[in-house]
Amino acid sequence: MKIVVHAPTLTSSDDDRVAAAVLAAVRTELRRLDADDEADADPRSSSTADARTK
Q: What is the pTM of this model?
């Protein structure tokens, strides 16, 4: 899955800081989700093994 996030066009410096913080949070969450997807794809991962034993 590929998600592209474009920064909105803003006028004040406060808005720029808010946009930068939102983009950073989105990027962090996407990295976390990507890592979860890779772990799910690996049958040797501990999270997958735990799910099978429950």
A: 0.48
